[in-house]
Amino acid sequence: MNTHDYCQQKVVESGTSFYYAFLFLPQEKRQAIHALYAFCREVDDVVDECEDPAIAVAKLSWWRQEVALLETEPGQPQPTHPVMIALKEVRQHFNLPVEYFNEIIDGMAMDLEYSRYPDFKSLSLYCYRVAGVVGLLSAEIFGYSDRKTLRYATELGTALQLTNIIRDVGEDARRGRIYLPVDELQRFNVPAADIMNARETPEFLALMSFQAERAQSYYDKALETLPAADRSSQRPGLIMAAVYRTLLEEITQDGFQVLKQKTALPPLRKLWIALKTWFKY
User: Fold this and answer.
1) Residue 40, number of CB atoms within 10 A of its CB
2) How far apart are CA 16 and CA 41, in angstroms?
3) What is the pLDDT of residue 17?
4) Which residue positions in the chain have pLDDT lower than 50?
5) What are the distances in angstroms from CA 31 to CA 3, 21, 36, 68, 211?
């Protein structure tokens, strides 16, 4: 298996809805975006799968060393992980700044430092690092002519991450984490214990409705910001927005049953949304 096959397999095995957004890309761009998302999956797995925080910190440090090797010249030490070998190759064709990869690792490291976020401002930094920066790198791969597209990419990244947070409230709680801002829990009279113990209350539903409205506002801001000239090149991101927005609407219509279950769209429905969106733009 070559490095690009490894990256594609990593993306497929993750079950990410993003896979459907990449299907229609030409091979060079598809390989690049698979390498980027495989990197995100690898460093995210470090945090999710390591029970000992010290081991997770050490592994993230190793990934930082691999990132540094993306800039070495021939004859110098080179990346050793298949994902990083693939990324080094695709960086010859796309502007993928090394500091962005370190910022993604910084975001993953926040999960080792924080199990709660005091307010939305602090959560926004987390969303920017783990999703907004990925949006910026994705925009470079998809291509753009107007720098306003970079703002669209960060807004969309936040929208997607907020949707993930809403979908995964119960799953995250079982891992000891709550990404809903503490001050908002207090404002809606939702004790953290209610979430940790999967107690659905009218207050919890009101809180989740507020979260969904904010996520929708970020989708709106992203789409309003995207210049018309770049809509065609940014179709993969628009597919992500369409799939995740549909997921968010499903969760809302189901009454935010997120504490004990995880809502997902069937693969055929995601493919249909991807096709509709691709030909729309």
Assistant:
1) 25
2) 10
3) 78
4) none
5) 10, 13, 9, 21, 34
